[in-house]
TrEMBL record, chains A, B:
Gene3D superfamilies: 1.10.8.590, 3.40.1280.10. Keywords: Cytoplasm, Methyltransferase, S-adenosyl-L-methionine, Transferase, tRNA processing. Its EC number is 2.1.1.200. Catalyzes the formation of 2'O-methylated cytidine (Cm32) or 2'O-methylated uridine (Um32) at position 32 in tRNA. The gene is trmJ. Belongs to the class IV-like SAM-binding methyltransferase superfamily. RNA methyltransferase TrmH family. This is tRNA (cytidine/uridine-2'-O-)-methyltransferase TrmJ.
Length: 255, 255
């Protein structure tokens, strides 16, 4: 039942989110909430404008207090990234710096490969109004830009943190892209489907529905194809047996 | 310069976001902001608790007014999805219903393929506290669940809209996952690099650095490999020419 790989993910294997000179406590709290939703809990703050701790951040965290309680505060970006092996800087704008710019998805894959090699990774997010300065950006080896609507680009800092953290979570996700919602049942086996088709065929034969010998094979095949397409669950197969049984009985009663 | 494919994307080719019985105006506004960041602008509201229009929604939209102005209000989910060919319902929980559940990424790919076939697509999001009811869910052909931290799953409605809209935007994104930030320059050509190496070699020859005939080939190759590894831009090549020229001059002056 245990998932040891996930346990390890809370040490070096997960990146640290570093908010640089954040202005609003609400945004720090919402960023913490976004992080924890995605399984991240290591937060650093560089010179938060309104000091630290900040009650407004706690209110906005909606239960992600563990992230805020463990947050470390630094005076400078240099100090905040000093122990990091790799640093990614988020930027909304094109910069004069010649830097490699990656999407959040590419960044997530690279972060996973760096942490797998034992590197400690930090992701910088700039202040609300101005974003990161060039002096901040040069602390990073890679720039990250979220390629959204060029006509309306106004993500707030907590939304940017959410998207980066979400891509990180997805990059390690082993869950299937598609599943069935009902855990009390399972897809029907081919055997169960065969039994159902047989039951249906018998019932239709008895009812006279398949009395045209020449058309019979085509009609049976079309019905089978129709039921196969629905990808029935074991429970639905049982329900369908009931439906056939019930309908057949009515037929007999009327006779 | 024009991108006609993007223009078409604002008609049937983009899904409609449908907020079912939303409670807080702030969340409607933030959802609109998240949508427009991702290039979505078609919004429907089913029985918003505080009526419509809502000044709190406008304040929270941060400029995404166009989405709110065009929003359509309906009394029931049935009415809101009546003209839709496909409906996706977002859910945080496992349901008793036997429904296909997909991730936002899978849903985005499916939505793109449905709209490409001309289907109108709606995505339902439930009220803040309770989420969609089973009666709402059965209006949809597909359920969407965001597979985040099972120990802390508390996305608000605008964050859920952001992630679904973001995946939709990424599914149609032709932008490269990686690029260079500085548009005023470009990667150096091999020809330009060759000229630079020649320049460096001449300068080092003149300086006497390469005077050991036997070691010369290895030293030259190591220098070339080092400079190749930096993947220089055309501008950086020009700067480097300047550096060599300047250093060589100083050398001659000292002699």
């Amino acid at each position: 039942m245990g998932r040891p790989a996930k346990g390890r993910a809370t040490t070096n294997a997960a990146p640290t989110i570093i908010l640089v000179r954040p202005q609003l406590g609400e945004n720090i709290g919402m960023a913490a909430r976004a992080m924890l939703n995605c399984g991240l809990s290591s937060l650093r703050l560089v010179a938060p404008r309104d000091g630290w701790p900040n009650p407004k951040a706690e209110r906005a965290a909606s239960g992600a207090d563990v992230v805020l309680d463990k947050a470390k505060v630094f005076d400078t970006v240099e100090a905040a990234v000093a122990d990091m092996g790799r640093v990614v800087a988020t930027t909304a704008r094109n910069r004069e710096l010649s830097q490699r710019i990656v999407t959040p998805r590419r960044a997530a894959a690279e972060i996973r490969s760096w942490t797998a090699e034992g590197d400690k990774v930090g992701v910088l997010f700039g202040p609300e109004r101005t974003g990161l300065t060039n002096d901040d950006m040069v602390q990073a080896d890679t720039a990250l830009s979220i390629p959204l609507n060029p006509q309306f680009s106004s993500l707030n800092i907590a939304q940017a943190v959410l998207l980066v953290a979400y891509e990180w979570a997805m990059a390690g996700e082993e869950a299937p892209a598609e599943r069935m919602s009902d855990h009390s049942t399972r897809p029907a086996t081919k055997d169960e489907l065969q039994n159902l088709f047989d039951h249906l065929e018998r019932a239709l034969d008895q009812s006279g529905f398949l009395r045209h010998k020449a058309m019979r094979p085509a009609m049976v095949n079309n019905l089978r194809a129709l039921l196969q397409r629905t990808a029935m669950t074991e429970q639905e197969v049982r329900s369908f047996h009931g439906v056939i049984k019930f309908l057949s009985k009515r037929k007999h009663d009327e006779e």
